[in-house]
Design goal:
By secondary structure, the chain is of the alpha/beta class. The protein contains 18 helices and 16 strands. The protein has a 6-stranded parallel β-sheet, sandwiched between helices. A 6-stranded parallel β-sheet has the order 13-12-11-14-15-16. Helix 14 links the parallel strand 12 and strand 13. Bound molecules: uridine-5'-diphosphate-xylopyranose. The site of uridine-5'-diphosphate-xylopyranose has 20 residues, from helix 9.
Amino acid sequence: MRISVIGCGYLGAVHAVSMASLGHEVVGVDVDEAKIAALCERRAPFYEPGLPELLGSVDDDLLTWTTDLAQVAGARVHFVCVGTPQMHGEFRADLRYVEAALAGITEHLAPGDVVVGKSTVPVGTAERIAEDLSSTGATLVWNPEFLREGFAVQDTLHPDRIVYGLPTNDGVATPAGQAARVLLDEVYAAPLAEGIPLIVTDYATAQLVKVAANSFLATKISFINAMAELCEATGADVTALADAIGHDVRIGRRFLNAGLGFGGGCLPKDIRAFMARAGELGVFDALRFLQEVDAVNMRRRVRMVDLAREVCHGSIVGRRVAVLGAAFKPSSDDVRDSPALSVAAQMQLQGARVTVTDPQAVANARAAWPDLSFADTPEEAARDADVILLATEWPEYRDLDPHALGEIVAQRHILDGRNVLDPATWRAAGWTYRALGRP
Ligand code: UDX
């Protein structure tokens, strides 16, 4: 199948390479020349485990990259994978990249082509796009993406589920929708053959599935972080609490890790855009709880700065703080709305001398926060530090030796922002150990 992928970020680049690895003939398009130049040289333009190997293994004839949107002509299926960031100063999603992508491909579409929306959009957007495409003879399918950064290749080739939102008439897929489904089944023949569940529905449901899933995940994280606040008020331990409630299979232990909370390019902006859309639809009350989810999440960052102040006996002014981690989560170089960087910047603004390190994200972090200091290794960052903050739980930080680290710091104060260290081990090595939601 000839496929085009428009937008080669964390989602699109992985999607393009994955589809080529399944034997499809793929052209990936992006406006970012540096990104396309890297991909043309078979280099991944960002850190994503497994992507370089997959890029290297795909047949040259099956994968091309370009900045020229006209190259999508001749493809039968066009995946729209561009970003939908939060609008500046508002909760709404900024749809300008989706609109530009569609405006750019429209003249190259042929009747019978299928345009597949993967970007996360406010419910109602697909209906509008379908209307705009009607004169081309192409059909729109909404096919939300659920990939996690760090596991993007695995999640693209072996997703938990596949969702198609088709054009419908009285709840039944239109003939064009049914034809589009046949084409998409061919694209996803390999994962479908694995027995991966396929949910075929309408546009509205397909768009909602994505934001509903992300809202649920964000709520789960903020729930356990709210419990962490209760634990702090009562002397209880949120990690033991999470283990105990997580044994109930109806609750489950995954996504119950308390700490600095969620960040990244998806959860924070998706719940905000969802609230904004609910307001437009006149049902804001239904999502009012997401305001609390957001508030609990942001409070954790403030609380972490307070903890640093507590271990420094009331003031962080002039204190050296080493922040281990800049990425919003391990196995990623993505620093969009990173809790680690947000806390680092706050402490710096409040007078601390902050040095940040990260195995993969220093370049992106430096571009976003040029005023912070950066180090290549945890040891370099920790030298003469008064406080160490573990902010992103990379394996190499979880495995740090408290005795060796204790030799190079000025004071043995460790703040465990992700609740991944063993307090007893660190305390036995002479450290003051503090964490969110733990005694
Ligand atoms: C998320 C969704 O998981 C994915 O399905 C969707 O397609 C895009 O958004 P991603 O942004 O890659 O994926 O990250 P995810 O693994 O969900 O983590 C999000 C944030 O939550 C991270 O900052 C992580 O540190 C935090 N988190 C996660 C917690 O604080 N506690 C947890 O228990 C789990």
